[in-house]
Write a structure and sequence with these properties.
- 40% of the residues lie in helices and 16% in strands.
- It has 231 residues and is of the alpha/beta class.
- α8 links the parallel β7 and β8.
- It is globular and about 45 Å long.
- It starts with 5 loop residues before the first strand and ends with a helix.
């Protein structure tokens, strides 16, 4: 039995490998994330096939950022694919343009707050204003939600704080940087277990390598679903 709170990141190079992994996961997984790494390997085609022919939900992780007119046009085009989630950068003007582009469609616009691979030293290098990284994430989340985002992407460590925002009522929180107990953290710096992320207010968790690098990916996915069963 699958649980759509678990989103599996298809971080493989191309459609063939993506379909192979989806076949191995079978009914253990109902929701997939397809990101930029797959874009030149047929990501849109894979998204369509998984959605239309296999009945899976699809999160297209494009993290769009551009001038308003370009964002609006890009989102309008993507919205025709009948997918479920799309990410854009959480800058309010980007969020507003994306919401205009998806008008009339069920596509959910999710705003990226601060990438889960970043820490304060990275923010300094990127000339982001001084301050605690959690506070900055919270502030960006609030501004994105005020601009009309259907939800936000944030690390599990900020999920509870974001859930407590008045602007977050009825909105989605999707958390990458989720690692089952004992799994390697990889390039993620702000992580939590699946159960902790959901308990702290996330609607969905995104898990990649701990599932697709497992000897038995379906068993790894079912173990996470079992962990979430009591929450």
């Amino acid at each position: 039995m699958s649980d759509d709170r678990l989103i599996v990141a298809l971080d493989v190079p191309n459609v063939v490998q993506g379909l192979d992994l989806a076949a191995r996961l079978g009914d253990a997984v109902s929701f997939y994330k397809i990101g930029l790494g797959m874009l030149t390997g047929g990501g849109f085609a894979l998204a369509n096939e998984l959605k239309q022919e296999h009945g899976k939900r699809i999160f297209l992780d494009m993290k769009l950022f551009d001038i308003g007119a370009t964002i609006e046009a890009a989102v309008r085009g993507i919205a025709q694919y009948d997918l479920d989630f799309l990410t854009v950068h959480g800058d309010p003007q980007v969020v507003r343009a994306a919401c205009e582009g998806k008008r009339g469609k069920d596509l959910k616009i999710l705003a990226v707050t601060v990438l889960t691979s970043l820490d304060r030293a990275d923010l300094d290098a990127n000339l982001i204003k001084p301050g605690d990284i959690h506070d900055i994430t919270l502030e960006r989340a609030a501004k994105a939600l005020e601009a009309g985002a259907d939800g936000v992407i944030a690390s599990p460590q900020e999920a509870a704080m974001i859930r407590a925002l008045p602007q977050a009522a009825g909105r989605l929180i999707v958390t990458p940087g989720v690692r089952p107990a004992g799994a390697a953290s990889g390039d993620q710096k702000r992580i939590a277990t699946p159960a902790k992320a959901i308990a702290d207010g996330a609607n969905h968790i995104v898990v990649g390598r701990p599932i697709w690098q497992a000897a038995d990916p379906a068993a790894a996915a079912r173990a996470i679903v079992a962990e979430l069963a009591g929450i």
